[in-house]
């Protein structure tokens, strides 16, 4: 069959591929646990207090591959697969490469010169390809959780500034961000308030909005403070809950602008 006869037309709705990152304890895993019938592939030991189904703790990259393969081949009722977390998965990827090359550090893999990070991308692609298979063949939602870090961003149009990003090596981060349908930053909402500092001076302080530590939100569009994007046309902050995400998803149209990623 010729390629011309295989041209696909119109929208093809698919389960979302989400990367959700934020600081420790903000509620990333709880958000994922609210998704439809989730099962967690845990690479870090932090789910004991969350009511969820999970594979045994993965201590090797092979453990992660095995869990993904069984979800692809075995009969099950799960509708969402969650990787928790990507930054601990990255450690397993590095450990796997170190064993392959019989070295003690990712920096020494294949003779050094940052080759280890390049080799790591091929293993990341194996994971993302497996997740794509679960999405397309089994109709599963994919949620990848990561912690946040503060990085200095060298903006060619302005002075350099700090921003939040997933706690991954830059090669892995770029790959995951491009692959994801949405990269969502979980944080707390603040407001700025000016107070009298004495002697005729004023000072600005940030205060959390809401009760119990502030309102927890997802930022869906990037800016100077964080990396974020989505392909769904969600152009505002939403509550950090699966219900809020689905409501935003159902009330928007796919974006055609620069936030597509």
The average pLDDT is 89
The shape is: globular
Content of β-strand: 25-35%
Radius of gyration: 20 Å
Reported by name, the CATH topology is: Rossmann fold
Query: What is the domain total for the residues?
Result: 1
Q: What structural class should be given to the helix and strand makeup?
A: alpha/beta
Distance between the termini: 32 Å
The CATH first-level class comes to Alpha Beta
Which features characterize this protein?
single chain; 261 residues; Rossmann fold; two-stranded antiparallel sheet; 6 helices; 12 strands; globular
What does it look like?
The chain has 261 residues and is of the alpha/beta class. The chain has six helices and twelve strands. The protein is globular, with a radius of gyration of 20 Å. The protein has one domain (14-260): Rossmann fold (3-Layer(aba) Sandwich). Strand 5 (141-153) and strand 6 (161-166) form a beta hairpin. The strands form two sheets. Strands 1, 2, 3, 4, 5, 6, 7, 10, 11 and 12 form a ten-stranded mixed beta sheet that branches. It starts with 16 loop residues before the first strand and ends in an 11-residue tail after the last helix.
Strands, helices and their partners?
Blueprint: E1 17-22, H1 28-33, E2 38-42, E3 53-54, H2 61-73, E4 80-84, H3 86-101, H4 115-138, E5 141-153, E6 161-166, H5 170-179, E7 182-188, E8 190-198, E9 201-208, E10 216-219, E11 229-230, E12 238-239, H6 242-250
Parallel strand pairs: 1-5, 1-7, 2-3, 2-4, 4-5
Antiparallel strand pairs: 5-6, 7-10, 7-11, 8-9, 10-12
